[in-house]
Amino acid sequence: MNYWPLLGIALVVIGFALRFNPLLVVVAAALATGLLAGLDLVAVIEALGQAFNDNRYISVTWIILPVIGLLERYGLQQRARGVIESVRGATMGKLLTIYLLFRQLTAALGMKDIGGHPQAVRPLVAPMAEAAAEKSHGTLADEHREKVLAMSAATDNVGLFFGEDIFFAIASILLIQGVFESYGYPLTPLQLSVWAIPTAICAFIIHSWRIRSLDRKLGKGRA
Amino acid sequence: MITYEWLYILAGAFFAIWSLLSLRDLKYGNAAFWGLLSASFFFGSHLSDFANGVLVLALVGIAGVGGLRRSDPETTNVEQRSEYAGRLGNRLFIPALIVPLTAVAGTLLYNYTPLSETGLFEPRRETLILFGVGVIVALIVAILWLRPPLLAPAEEGRRLLDSIGWAAILPQMLAALGAVFALAGVGEIIGGVAGQVIPEGNVLLTVIVFALGMALFTIIMGNAFAAFPVMAAAIGIPLLIETYDGNPAVIGAVGMLAGFCGTLLTPMAANFNIVPAALLELKDQNAVIRQQVGTAVPLLICNIAIIYIAGFLLWN
Lengths: 223, 316
Fold this sequence. Notes:
The complex is a heterodimer of chains A (223) and B (316).
Chain A lengths: L6 H11 L4 H15 L4 H14 L2 H4 L4 H9 L2 H11 L5 H17 L8 H21 L4 H23 L6 H12 L6 H5 L3 H23 L4
Chain B lengths: L3 H21 L3 H16 L5 H16 L13 H11 L4 H19 L14 H21 L5 H13 L5 H14 L2 H11 L6 H19 L2 H20 L4 H16 L6 H10 L7 H27 L3
Helix pairs in contact in B: 1-2, 1-7, 2-3, 5-6, 9-11, 10-11, 10-12, 10-14, 11-12, 12-14
């Protein structure tokens, strides 16, 4: 077997580690992998162009930016903070735990497009988490503030990943079904999706514990 | 029938406006970058694969030489924003909620009523198309209500877009890399290697190699979807199911979730890990991944335990 195409993966790892521009790293890796697999340069450029073109739908989502930017111009983030400041007993721990549960449950019901980073985390969840943390612990040092914002984004990811597979009509479940069927193991989507529940429960327990422990560490000033 | 092509025209128009505004702002690198992306949306379906490939190389060239800069269009300051927030109140949330509600409620309505028989939308494309509809509705509502200066929506969007910068097309570029990897047979090579390192006769160790393989392969590819068919073919089906009689549903479902633990750990999953760091204007590009390590690692161990217990101990 020709193992040389694996060099492309090594290029990605090294390029990311040395902090080259990731776009440059990705394209260099694609060209190297294609050439090492014995394709000629024109064929690799064609493959890259075709795949980039086929995946344009991924970048369509940026059209939401004018909506978010416009609302921020009129104080959306400040309003989100205000809501949290007015709730008695609101802490970052409680807020992000509730958001985690909300994200898991809605994703499990197939509503994975509620939430997300440009739509929900930047304008709403992150400012709310920051306001709640400042309410309990006073003004945050820069590094602590970054941790709170990053934890808000992390919570959105964990909630989505470990909720969505409980919904049976989702791409990953259909992929599993397709692969198994091709090897002669017919399964229904529902048979698969119920087995996403134990992991979803573990994810909730582990991540909500980590949210609370970040909140506690902020209180002791050693996050 | 409304297809993705309609959305691409819409997105092409947005990026064309951002390109022109960058030009007016004398940011030529930004103008060229967003202009090329706009051209990809407008004309990509009519260009040859090679022309699209050259367009990709040009985009990467601009980003690679540091041609993209942050922008700072005119906007309101913090005091003004607080004042607006107090005056406008919770109604500010309404336009923000229009987009997800249109996408979600619209998808449900379309799929579970006779509406789907009208064939209004390209099959399985309705959610993203409805997302586009939601954006337009939300923009119109916000503009009619807030009456901002004419260019404010575009300029506020450009501020956010330029704070994301090149990371905005990284997810799409990684998807293209995945396609090239597939063409070069990288999956089969890794599957072959993984198949060779398995110790014979030990179920638990085989489960561990399967789950770790899913996570590691996902870390490399940035996507569990690429890892799953390979690991299922190399270990999941021939060993765990056919040799050791495991429960196929558990092995499939939880194996995929082991891959998702890898997604939490990799900059290759740019739209989940790198883009939010840019959106939240964090100094550390990997700040989100750092917060996810402590969840992903114990959860991977849980997944191994679930496959072993539910897939083998309770099943046989």
